[in-house]
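Record type: monomer structure entry
Structure origin: computed from sequence
Chain ID: A
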Amino acid sequence: MIKSLNKLDWRKLLNILSNFLYSDFSKEICQNLKPFFSYEEATKAQEKTKFIWNLLEKGEKLELNSLKSLKSLIERASKRGFFLPVELSEIKKWFLTNKKLIPYLENSPFKELKNLYEELKEIDLYLDKILDWEKAEIKDRASYNLFVTRKKLKELKETLFAKLERIKENLFKKGYLQENLFTQKEGRYVLPVKTEYKNKVKGILHEVSQSGATVFIEPASIIPLSNEIENLKYIEQREIIKILREISQEIFFYSNSFLSLENIYADFEISFAKASFGKTYRGNFPFLKNEGLIKIYSGIHPLLILKEKPSSKKVYNDFIIEKGLLISGPNLGGKTVSLKTIGILILMGQSGFPIPVKEAEFPVFSKIFVDLGDDQDIIEGESSFSSHLKNLKEILDKADKNTLVLLDEPGKGTNPEEGIALVAAVINELLRRNTKVVVTTHSQFLKTLGLKMKGLKLATMEYNLETKEPTYKLIYGVWGESLAFDLAEKMGFPVELLNEAMSYLKNKEYREWYKIIEWERKKLKELEEELSLKLKNLESKEKELEEERIKLKKFYERKMEELISTWNEEFKELLKNIEKERTSYKRAIQNFENFVNKLLKCNLFREKEIREGDRVLILPFKRMGEVLKVKDKLVEVKMGNLRIEVPKEKIVKDHSEIEDYSFKPMEINLESFQRFYERIEKREVLKLLGLNIEEALEEIEKTLNKAFLEGISKVYLIHGHGTGRLREGIRDYLKNHPLVKSFKFADPMEGGTGVTIVYLEEKN
């Protein structure tokens, strides 16, 4: 199947993907990357890329670095027995990179990166203690011995340089030196002495210049210091190796974890590359499924998008494959490109790539076979047709319902009729197995046979007869012609030769008929475009009307809100006056009715048509009822057990049907108003009939105290008329009571002189 992948430009795709990778080991893995051929693996790969895609969409800046292969570092170090500081610096870069990624990895497909860091965290802390990773050096304080040794080294070098500087200045003034400087030869500090003065400078001669004019002498007076420095350097190196061996043993112990870290990170980096690559063409993730149709809308081969020719037109096609698809059409019209586009998009989708489509869904195939191009092998003595036969035989042996087969111009290289007949039989067998098949062909014979095959749909690559240019658009439901004469004419073949070639055709009129069909197809396309334009205009008008409707609705709602706001204020004023002026119940009810009648004159409550079964307010009775029958001007209503006929204008629909307003005027009905009146009135009723004066006054005292504490402003004392002694005794008692603000007899409708209404002081 590897050969099939490369025929679909899989290798070229991986080369492009490598450009989005940072680490060499990831690039190496990428070059050997293969698509996934199981649903579980494909969906998991897509999940990983989607995770990174979503992070990039949110604007997250994921910092990836070029890292060295941990596997290679461990292999080299294990041969040596320890890691060098420069290699430890590379390992430290791994930790730094992972720590930057960890905040994003919680509950992600790459959470194992976080888990591995937690496992290896102690090594990271150890490296921080001993390593200056930017300089790739072991820190002075990596151990006490190293600190002491380096301190001594520093002091000795300062002493040596000071002494060497004095010697140099003295010898230079005498003219013994070629230059006023000192240098190193084989790790020892030397002076550039002129050859003629070499006997004037005591010391060890280490080197002679090529010209022979200069000798490099280590002054004798600094030799002990240099020797001591060399000894300390040896001690320093020994201590460094000891430290390196210690940290190396820790790393070797966790080598399996480090190797897992590299594998998972490589997977992360490749998923990151897929997402980054997909961003360049604003790809979309296909919906992957176990079985079903191939649906690719506005798809294009990724390599065509990356073409650098600005003049090249990028053509997007829809590929809908239920079982099989036979694509015909002119030479250089895009048949093979369409075949490869279908194949590469499915391979990309099964490998976690976002693909260059508007939308796509297709099953995950367990096998993909491609028979494309000329595979003849000269060395093996294999012909082109025998090579194709070998491919077809392999397909027949292995293809099933989870297989995609792509055949480009099958049946070539032998007798056309025999070759096509064999190919037709193979296609038919594959369709019977429910294998997905896409075939391109120029063969009229295969197109004719294709019409009889169940499940094989026809399509053609469009060709513009006026410009004699292919449009590269795929048209379904028709077959196309190769148009060899048109292509030959375009390439400059003589007209006489083309006419002679046409005379050899058995059916000379066929080409003219094809042109007629193409013209009819063109007219149909123009009609479709005209219809599409009219539909767009209609949609535009519909949108304008909808916008106008919304605008009017908002205007109406705003006006209603203003009106309702006014009513609210008026109603609040009504309640305020009732409470302030201590309006009698009868008067309050009358005020309320006047207010409600004012509201009812508004059409707000009459917008909806009254139907049978509606709940309505019956205005004359101020009660709710149910509509039984609607007549011309009368409405039969059931009110309790009573059936009556009421004029339409005397009823309104139930307020509960009025929506979308913060205030619903119909909620202000008689019953709710009565409850309100009783609530604001806060009155207490005390019956004193049958009690003597002493008993009555005792009850009154308890009631007045209780009412005052509960904030009740009004108490009704029902004492009756009788002889008048009880009434007068009560009134005398009330005159000097500290809680009583005032008192009076009730209205005739409420009991007259048989009832005394007591108004209490307000509670502070």
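Annotation 1: Confidence is low (pLDDT under 50) at residues 376-381, 655-671.
Annotation 2: The two ends are 95 Å apart (CA to CA).
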